[in-house]
Design goal:
With about 375 residues, the protein is α/β, with parallel strands linked by helices. The protein folds into two domains: about 10-105 and about 110-245, Type I PLP-dependent aspartate aminotransferase-like (Major domain) (Aspartate Aminotransferase, domain 2, 3-Layer(aba) Sandwich), CATH 3.40.640.10; about 245-365, Aspartate Aminotransferase, domain 1 (Alpha-Beta Complex). The protein is built from twelve helices and 14 strands. Strands 1-9-8-5 form a four-stranded mixed sheet, sandwiched between helices. The longest helix has 19 residues, at about 245-265.
């Protein structure tokens, strides 16, 4: 039995007629750049997030970059973020002209450790960007308290946590802005690159919208220089269809995570995901921990089971950040976890038979 890590076609087949009609409509109207589909998505996504404004853009990386530029962050500034994330989170800080300052993670949930943030704050610190990793909210109340105490803007990277909740409140609503990726493999994924940011700040939304559109709010009038980062009409049409189903898909992921938890319970060499109290985890990824990660991954591959590693190298230990002079002992938890984590197949259409096959192969390996 083959079990792919992700099966995007299975999801497409469940909504094929709606998707095909939405794409056909865009083509019929030649509404390829912005237009009614983009406007509809921005309104609907902002409303579902509980925010006043949604500024769509070309991808989730741009969403972070755009909000940093809209905030006026640039050369001489520092922005604090977490040591274990996709490089989008940190590279956008550098692209804005600032310096990324990394913080180690907690050993239970793999999020930025709030207890370590204040030691990294300097007079040059201009913002903090926690990441809601794997679909589970970070300890966002503690991070927000620190930001309020020091007068620092909080920007949430929600690329892996569409509509996850902390204390009944959706991620992306705790700081000045939340950024999202709609990369195809995300819980809410387009059929190409796409992204957005949400905020309640009218001025910040206006600056972000302008910067993403060549520094312009009116054609041929450019108050500033910007970039070209716009959501395509076809991607917006796809997202408008999918947005109707996201809650059910997230629930399907929770159901499948519960099956994994049950079938892997008691297997000592494997640590299943720990869930923070009072949160709604949407399981973008189901990540286990084991000291024999690479051997297990090879065994599962031989059994026709797809896995991935998110992420094999902590950001401050990447060659790209060699100039910062960090060593593994500077981030002991992230450095240790990078060699232990393994993402198992996870998507709403995954059935119990296939999950049982995955868990059976894992037990066979350790037994």
């Amino acid at each position: 039995m083959n079990v792919p890590f992700l099966d995007l076609k299975a999801q497409y087949l469940t909504i094929k007629e709606e998707i095909d009609e939405a794409i056909r409509s865009v083509i019929d109207r030649s509404a390829y750049i912005r237009g009614a589909d983009v406007d509809e998505f921005e309104r609907a996504f902002a409303a579902k997030c509980g925010k006043k404004h949604c500024v769509s853009c070309a991808n989730g990386t741009d969403a972070i970059y755009i909000i940093l530029k809209a905030m006026g962050i640039g050369p001489g500034d520092e922005v604090i973020t977490v040591a274990n994330s996709w490089i989008s989170t940190s590279e956008t800080i550098t692209q804005a002209g600032a310096r990324p300052v990394f913080v180690d993670i907690d050993p239970d949930y793999y999020h930025i450790d709030p207890a370590l943030i204040e030691a990294k704050i300097t007079p040059r610190t201009r913002a903090v960007i926690p990441v809601h990793l794997f679909g589970q909210p970070a300890a966002i109340d503690a991070v927000a308290d620190i930001c309020r105490h020091h007068g620092l803007p909080l920007v949430e990277d929600c690329a892996q946590a569409h509509f996850a909740e902390y204390g009944g409140r959706r991620v992306g609503t705790f700081g000045v802005a939340g950024t999202f990726s709609f990369y195809p493999g995300k819980n809410l994924g387009a059929y190409g690159d796409a992204g957005a940011l949400v905020t309640d700040d009218d001025e910040l939304a206006t600056r972000a919208l302008s910067f993403a559109n060549h520094g312009s709010l009116q054609k041929h009038v450019h108050e500033r220089e910007g970039i070209n980062s716009r959501l395509d009409g076809i991607q917006a049409a796809v997202l408008n269809v999918k947005l109707k189903y996201i809650d059910g898909w997230n629930e399907g992921r929770r159901r499948n995570a519960a099956i994994y938890d049950r079938l892997l319970a008691g297997l000592a060499p494997v640590r299943t995901p720990r869930v923070r109290s009072g949160v709604s985890h949407i399981y973008h990824l189901y990540v286990i921990g084991t000291d024999r990660r690479d051997e297990l991954a090879a065994h599962l591959k031989n059994e026709g089971i797809g896995t991935q590693i998110h992420y094999p190298t902590a950001l401050p230990l990447m060659p790209a950040y060699r100039y910062l002079g960090h060593a593994p002992e500077d981030f002991p938890v992230a450095a240790r976890m990078q060699d232990r984590i393994l993402s198992l197949p996870m998507y709403p259409e995954l059935d119990e038979e296939r999950i049982a096959h995955v868990c059976g192969a894992i037990k066979e390996f350790f037994q």
